[in-house]
Specification:
Blueprint (H helix, E strand, L loop, with lengths): L12 H9 L6 E4 L5 H13 L3 E5 L1 H6 L9 H21 L4 E4 L9 H21 L4 E4 L14 H11 L7 E5 L10 H8 L3 E6 L27 H13 L15 E4 L9 H21 L1
Parallel strand pairs: 1-2, 2-3, 3-4, 4-5, 5-6, 6-7
C-alpha cells in the first residue's frame, strides 16, 4: 500500500524493498502479488538476511480479479479458491508467516446466511491447503456499505465465522484494521473485545468518511489528514485498547512470536512514500509514548 506503483511486483521493487528492510524500525513487511519466482527468491533471501518476517496479502488479487469466496455461482467460487491457493504457493516460496484474504461482496438481506455458509466452506478448503504449505490463513474484515462492501463485515459476524473455522483449523485468525472501524460504524473497544481471542493481525491507519474528499472511503491516508477520522491521539487510544484486551503485552511460554501490528498507509496525490513513512513513524512513536504513560 505504501508503494502503490509497485504493487504488482515489478523487478525494480527489489531495490525499494532492500531499502525498507534496512530500517530496523520494522520487523515485518506485508507483500502481495509477486508473480516472478526469481523475484520471490531474492526477496526471501533479503528478508532472511535482514532478520525480518514477511506476510502475504491475497486481498489485491481477489479484488482486482473480482473473485468472490462466497459467490453462489459455484464456478466463480472455485475460481476464487484456486486463486487463493496460488497465493498460498507464492507465500510459501516467500517464506511468509501468514496469508490474509477477504470475503466476497455482501449480497444483502436474506442471502447473507447462504453467503456465509459458502464463505465458511471456501475458507475450510483454503485453510486445508494452507496447512499443507504451513501457511496459516487470516481473514480481514472490511466495510459493508461504503467502498469494498464485503460480507465480512461486522466484528460480531467475523468472530462467529472464526469460531466455526477454528474447530478444524486452530491457526486461523482475524485481521482488524483500525481504519475500517469508522467505515463499519464500530466502536473500537467493543469490536476488539468481541474479536479478542481470534485476533492474529492488526492494521493501524486512517480513513475519510466525508463524501467528495480525495481520500473518501478505504484509501488509507496518513494520520491527521484534514477531515480524516484518526490522528495521533486516536492511535494512542487504539494501542491502549490492544493492551487492555491482551493482544499487546501478553507473553506465554508456548508462543515466542510477537503480535503483528502493521501500518496500512497510502500516499495521496502529491505525497511521497518516504515522507509518509517518516510521518507515520513519528505518529507511532508519539502515540506509543503516550499509551505507555497512561
Amino acid at each position: 500500500m505504501i508503494y502503490p506503483t509497485f504493487q504488482w511486483g515489478e523487478a525494480s521493487f527489489l531495490d525499494t524493498f532492500n531499502r525498507l528492510v534496512q530500517d530496523d524500525f520494522f520487523s515485518v513487511v506485508e507483500l502481495a502479488g509477486f508473480r516472478d519466482p526469481e523475484l520471490r527468491k531474492a526477496m526471501r533471501h533479503t528478508a532472511e538476511t535482514a532478520s525480518i518476517s514477511l506476510t502475504y496479502g491475497a486481498q489485491l488479487d481477489l479484488l482486482s480479479q473480482k473473485l468472490d469466496l462466497n459467490s453462489q455461482n459455484e464456478d466463480e467460487r472455485q475460481s476464487a479458491i484456486r486463486q487463493a491457493k496460488v497465493c498460498i504457493d507464492e507465500a510459501h516460496e516467500l517464506g511468509a508467516e501468514r496469508m490474509s484474504l477477504l470475503s466476497g461482496p455482501d449480497p444483502g438481506g436474506d442471502q447473507r446466511a447462504e453467503a456465509t455458509r459458502l464463505l465458511v466452506d471456501s475458507l475450510d478448503q483454503v485453510c486445508t491447503y494452507g496447512e499443507e504449505k504451513r501457511i496459516p490463513i487470516t481473514l480481514e474484515t472490511f466495510d459493508r456499505e461504503v467502498e469494498k462492501k464485503c460480507l465480512v463485515g461486522p466484528s460480531g459476524e467475523a468472530a462467529a465465522i472464526a469460531r466455526t473455522i477454528r474447530k478444524d483449523h486452530p491457526d486461523f485468525g482475524i485481521m482488524y484494521d483500525m481504519a475500517h472501524g469508522p467505515l463499519l460504524n464500530e466502536d473500537p473497544r467493543r469490536a476488539l473485545a468481541v474479536l479478542r481471542r481470534y485476533l492474529v493481525h492488526i492494521h493501524v491507519g486512517n480513513c475519510v468518511k466525508a463524501a467528495g474528499h480525495p481520500a473518501y472511503g478505504d484509501k488509507h491516508p496518513r494520520f491527521g489528514i484534514e477531515r480524516g477520522e484518526h490522528d495521533t491521539q486516536d492511535l494512542a487510544r487504539f494501542l491502549r485498547i490492544l493492551f487492555d484486551i491482551g493482544y499487546l503485552g501478553k507473553k506465554t511460554t508456548s508462543d515466542t512470536t510477537l503480535p503483528i501490528v502493521g501500518f496500512e498507509i497510502k500516499p495521496m496525490p502529491g505525497e511521497t512514500p518516504d515522507a509518509v513513512i517518516a510521518g507515520t513513524k513519528r505518529a507511532w512513536r508519539q502515540a506509543w509514548a503516550e499509551c505507555r504513560r497512561g
